[in-house]
Amino acid sequence: MKKDGVKLFKEDNPKKEGSYYHNTACGPLTAEEFQTKWLIFSKDYLPKKITEVWEIRSLSDATLLGIVKWHAPWRCYSFYPMANTIFNSTCIKDILDFINKLMEARKKPKK
């Protein structure tokens, strides 16, 4: 779907307060986004959220595959997959590498 010449992700869930799932414009990647061979990682901005929340979408059709967010009981970032999603070893490795980078950045001393 296109709006004003910008490709939009298909709607997985309507945007609602307290929801991690919403439409994101798909254009040139910003500093808050990056992609691997099959995935797009996009930082989500939620009010009153101290730790980062990231959406993971399919590069081919922009389907929301899951989110990465802080899991306080384990004191680490964790992957929360959407229902009925399937991942191959390459995608799982990309997600693991991403979580490891988030944890490394968190451990660095703040200036």
Per-chain topology:
Layout: E1 2-3, E2 6-8, E3 25-26, E4 33-35, E5 39-44, E6 53-58, E7 64-71, E8 76-81, H1 89-107
Question: Can you give me a brief rundown of this structure?
Answer:
By secondary structure, the chain is an alpha+beta fold.
Gross geometry = globular
Indicate how many domains the architecture comprises.
1
Tell me the quaternary state: single chain
Low-confidence parts: 1-26
Through-space gap between termini: 43 Å
Helix content: 10-25%
Spatial order of the strands forming the largest sheet: 4-5-6-7-8
Number of strands: 8
Mean pLDDT: 77
**Helix count from the secondary structure assignment:** 1
Radius of gyration: 14 Å
- What percentage of amino acids are in beta strands? 25-35%
Assign the structural class, choosing from mainly alpha, mainly beta, alpha/beta, alpha+beta, or little secondary structure.
Answer: alpha+beta
Order of helices and strands: EEEEEEEEH
Largest sheet: 5 strands, antiparallel
